[in-house]
Amino acid sequence: MRGTLDLRIRCLLPGLTLAALVVMSARAFSAPPAGGPEREAAAPFDAARVQRLIAGIELGENARVLKYQYFLDKRPQPLGRSTGYSLLQTAFDASQSGTRRWFALGSVIAFAAFRLPDDTEREGYRTYAALVKSAPDAQRAGAEDVIQDALYDCVVTLTDPHVQSRPAFMVDGQALVESSAPAYLRMVASGHWHGEIPPWATVIHKLLDKQGIVEAVSPVLAEPGLKWTYELLCGATVIYQYLDPDRAIDLFGRAKAMLPQENKEQVAWYYRSYVSMLWENGRTEDAVNVQDDLVAATGAGRGKLSVLCLCAGDIPRGERLLCNLREPTSDEGDVKEAASLLLALHAERPEAAVGYGSLCADLLTAYLNAKRARTYAVEMQARLWLAGYRAAHGDSSGARALLAEAQLPPMPAGGEDGGYRAAVQHMRKTLGASGG
Fold this sequence. Notes:
By secondary structure, this protein is mostly helical. The chain has a domain at 377-436. Helices cover 62% and strands 0% of the residues. The protein contains 22 helices and no strands. It is globular and about 75 Å long.
């Protein structure tokens, strides 16, 4: 189970925009019933195909094809999406409430309602609300996978800036979060949630009535006999991140004792997320301690640890760690992370007693001058960062020397370099225009 925290980590920062819904269609679910789902991913959506998908909507894959390939994809189709939406509504009205078919049709209608040019947004809110209200019936209907998909879609939809800019968001969006967050927590507590944590914090951060959400979710977490699991603590943390940061930190700290140590990826995610929460809330010394745990558990993270020590006031230790990063044997990822953070701090706190910018420049200079293995992307990024720093401090000739063609590493096999060469060309022109 992964979620956001970085915490903004996968779901908080969600970096989860509507584009993330495309990725969601690839998530694993239990095998569909015999008969097989609709597999014609590349086929056009004409009336016959859409009606066939609706007829077999109980097959989970059919609902996902309609959502992610028909309504989310804006390419022209033989059957207009508004017409397809009307067909779904007719089928939904004819279905028996509380059945798997009803849940599946409702999940597609709600998803589509937010993505049509017509004024169907209110229908989307109403349908999602109806699905959430009936969530306790999903297990009996054999629709747990459907309601989980719908709830995740619902929260991701509410992260979209266009949805958040509409007047209905502050009223209907608020009400939907107040009903869906408790439903989600109950599903997690009962062991019936099997996917990623929805990006609650990205939505909650934009809503005005934080106390209303607290009053909605608090009773769930206070229910007698509630079994606190790692999954529940992580999910509750994401919800509380902008409601009550201290409560979120406490919940996430309790999850440490339940951390699945055999899952190294999860261990790394947990510690990184916890450090981010602590640092963002001004608890830098605690963040140093947790970052130490991350280094001990994974062997990675010395770059961020060095910067955290500086921010916590432990200058001697921070400088010792940075000195170690200047060695040719240091981890390249740690060098990049430290440099990135130092540059950010330099931009944010240019007058700080700690010379974050000069420390970054020293680190990148040592990295580029050392006889060591360097990957193309990290070296190019280092050259761009250092050139930018030198140019900003009046050393245009030094910046140009860093970006000279003879100094650049060979292009990677295949010729795709992620745009670094273009960035170098742009900076060269900027330096030339400056006349320095």
